Amino acid sequence: MAISTFTAFNLTAAAQQSTPVNTSRAINASFNITVASIGTNVVLRAEYSLDGGTTWTNCNSADTTITANGQYNIPVMASNIQVPLVRLNWVSTSTGTPTVTGGLRITR
User: How far apart are CA 92 and CA 74, in angstroms?
Assistant: First the structure.
């Protein structure tokens, strides 16, 4: 039987990251987020670390650019390798003062 857990976070400015979450033994993991008060866009990056959080690598082939308020799902894909730590990194904002809330849903 699969068990899901949800680790919540609240980001309010570029260059912030969610607290790294241990995803060992995960079957599936994705960031479920809500973006509010967006101006032009916000760029987010799902990242993983294989060395305890010293080096971070993009989980997906490209950053995720969001251009409208709403709910979004950013999957954690790391070439089908077991990743021990993941986080969401707020890369940049073009205009406005958006907020990104949500969390990481992990199914084990």
Answer: 16
How many domains does the chain fold into? 1
- Using CA of residue 21, residue 83, residue 52, residue 91, what is the dihedral sign? negative
Cα gap 57→78, rounded to integer Å: 9
Could you tell me the CATH number of the domain that includes residue 59?
A: 2.60.120
Residue indicated by tokens 């251009």? 67
Q: Could you report the per-residue pLDDT of 79-98, keeping only the tens digit for each? A: 555 667 889 999 999 888 89
Identify the DSSP state of 86. E
pLDDT given for residue 104 in this prediction: 87
- State which residues form the domain around 75: 4-101
Report the C-alpha gap between 76 and 73 in whole angstroms: 10
Contact 93, 73 (CB under 8 A): no
**Does residue 108 sit within a domain?**
no
The pTM for the full model equals 0.84
